[in-house]
Write a structure and sequence with these properties.
heterodimer, A: 108 residues, mainly beta, 6-stranded mixed β-sheet, 3-stranded antiparallel β-sheet, 9 strands, globular, B: 122 residues, 7-stranded mixed β-sheet, 4-stranded antiparallel β-sheet, 11 strands
Chain lengths: 108, 122
């Protein structure tokens, strides 16, 4: 099996930069993806291929990856960005497609 | 605009087979992409179940492979999920998602349905 590890929670004040990390042994070779899930809603892709933003995602969302850690950054976080964020990737064999445990972002 | 809508029984008895359907609108599933199923539960978090391509080629989660069948009905533009021998551990929200073949990963999910709640209980 394969695991991606995220911190359970992150808190920032409005206007600050929020950073959420995701660690996994295969991340040096595999891209990381990030999903946002607001309470009671479905998942939305906010970053793909480590650092690309899908159409319609605000520029304040960015991604980076170095070694075994990928990071989602939200610059100038807004109250509306409060949600659960999940990273996603696969192991080196490509057989295990896994999500991190999720990070609850509070912007207050 | 591509939309996915999951449907199926909300309650399934233990040891029975769970059957769900994903109806796709705004895109013909025979035109490309993989189409996958993911579930979410408080105990297991988000868990990929499997994905199917238009050719019928499938990828399944190794931990569920023995119980899972994913199929496509291109005439109805639907994807189906069957999970056999269910138990309370299979209680979850089940999502359908369009699966993109990635550059360094076999697939990732770019568009999700709203999900459907399935409870396994007698």
């Amino acid at each position: 099996s394969y695991e991606l590890t995220q911190p359970p929670s992150v808190s920032v004040s409005p206007g600050q930069t929020a950073r959420i990390t995701c660690s996994g042994d295969a991340l040096p070779e595999k891209y990381a993806y990030w999903y946002q899930q607001k309470s009671g809603q479905t998942l939305v892709l906010v970053i793909y291929d480590d650092n690309k933003r899908p159409s319609g995602i605000p520029e304040r969302f960015s991604g980076s990856s170095s070694g075994t850690m990928a990071t989602l950054s939200i610059s100038g976080a807004q109250v509306e960005d409060g949600a659960d964020y999940f990273c996603y990737s696969t192991d080196n064999s490509g057989n295990f497609w896994v999500f991190g445990g999720g990070t609850k972002l509070t912007v207050l | 605009q591509v939309q996915l809508q999951e449907s199926g029984p909300g309650l399934v008895k233990p040891s029975d087979t769970l059957s769900l359907t994903c109806s796709v609108s705004g895109y013909s599933i025979s035109s490309g992409y993989y189409w996958g199923w993911i579930r979410q539960s408080p105990g297991m978090g988000l868990e990929w179940i499997g994905s199917i391509y238009q050719s019928g080629n499938t990828y399944y989660n190794p931990s569920l492979k023995s119980r899972v069948t994913i199929s496509m009905d291109t005439s109805k533009n639907q994807i189906s999920l069957k999970l056999s021998s269910v138990s309370a551990a299979d209680t979850a929200i089940y999502y359908c998602a369009r699966t993109v073949s990635g550059n360094r990963v076999r697939g990732y999910f770019d568009i999700w349905g709203r999900g459907t709640v399935v409870t396994v209980s007698s």
